Amino acid sequence: QVQLVESGGGFVQPGGSLRLSCAISGDYYAIGWFRQAPGKEREGVSTISRSTGNIFYADSVKGRFTISNDNDKNTVYLQMNSLEPEDQDVYYCAAGGGATLMSQWYDYWGQGTQVTVSS
Questions:
Q1: Are 24 and 75 in contact (CB under 8 A)?
Q2: Rounded to an integer, what distance in angstroms lies between the CA atom of residue 77 and that of residue 114?
Q3: Mean pLDDT, to the nearest integer, of 11-37?
């Protein structure tokens, strides 16, 4: 059983930055960050493998978002820079068996944290 708790969401103006945290209890192979707006499909944003360190990003966030992990703290971070209104969503972290941006490969999910980007 893996439990995940996201934090760090909030309100930011376009061009601003936020850092999301995902605190993890239990063993996992990979952590993914996903986002979802009401009425839309969940979108994979970024993922990191705990064992290999492999990292992947969605094209929409490459160059703006950075995923990292602190194994001592069992926490994965998503640094989000140059935020755009289109980034406004509920962001979820999830634990799964491999570093992929496909949500069906993840078994455990956090409760989500809201990111609002608006002027």
A1: yes
A2: 15
A3: 96
